[in-house]
Design a protein that fits this description.
Length: 375
Amino acid sequence: MSGPEPGRAWARIDTGAVEANAGALKRAVGEGVELCAVVKADAYGHGAAPCAAAAMRGGATRLAVAAAAEAEELRQHFPEAPLFVMGALSERDLSRALDAGAEVAVWREGFRALCSRMAAQRGESVRLHVKHDSGMGRLGERDPELVLGLARACAEDDGLELAGAWTHFAIADELGDPFLDEQLEAFAPVAERVRELAPGAIVHAANSAATLRDPRTHFDMVRCGVALYGMDPFQGDPAERGLAPALELRSYVADVKRFPAGASAGYGRSWRAEAETWVGVLPIGYGDGVRRALSNNGEVLVRGRRRPIVGTISMDNLTLDLGPETDVEPGDEAVLIGPQGEERIRAEELAAALETINYEITCGVSPRVPRSHAR
């Protein structure tokens, strides 16, 4: 087999897959609905700028992030793209977001007034999206009349532009749960009245799960993140939804060692060989984002076969049981996320083992793992 790429661990991101996923999502919502690519948290660990470009090639027309610094970074690469900062902003971060030409979220009068003052100081209008807390219970105003009052204040302020009205679903990824319907019933009349105040305002609510689950959630725009990167928002097989995983995480076998019965690998001696076996050592660990909870609880692909992780995963290394006989050699490529031969390890599989969600798996790949992007 060919030797590893330079370095101890690396991630490959298929931007062609991101582009294709964006195209599939755009086809799902149709021509009358915009696709906003959510590229916060470095595009869920995939690389914000390359994935944003791929998403826009696939049909996305807007980009959304959570923080002002993320907007600043994207603006350097996309001087004309509409940017939306969804998260809470301090006064300093609001200034940074506006410097980046971003639209921002508002749900309190005090913040609206701050935006108005900044607009006057800058001599330019500030575009705001009023957020309704229809049941998520995080940021946003819950009282519909207060939401509408805030929207009216935005519309009547010469320094502000009421650019949108939005909400976020708490449980769209639980198929059949009726709370999505309850949130829709709460938000729809608010959205309609905002449209009366500002006919050009964009109404948006759907995340990836809602986009794929219910066309009623689409409104004027959908905000897709996890599905854009080829992961299933329902924690199943992405292929069943026509999505292609974009990220692969790889390392290599640095050593192959013969273990006698009773020999242990790793801190704490959490695993001991029951009989003579071969053990492979990989130079990747929780410092790279391979969660320690996968110790004795996960698998890695080597030479197209699943090999169990044995012993406690350390910061920089993990060990595999290769069996009593093996053809594995130092230098063989090891796949922690992605395909090899006829096998594939999906982020959803790791998430299930860790009792978490696929978002956390890719976001957890640490910055010291170099990313390469190719179509």
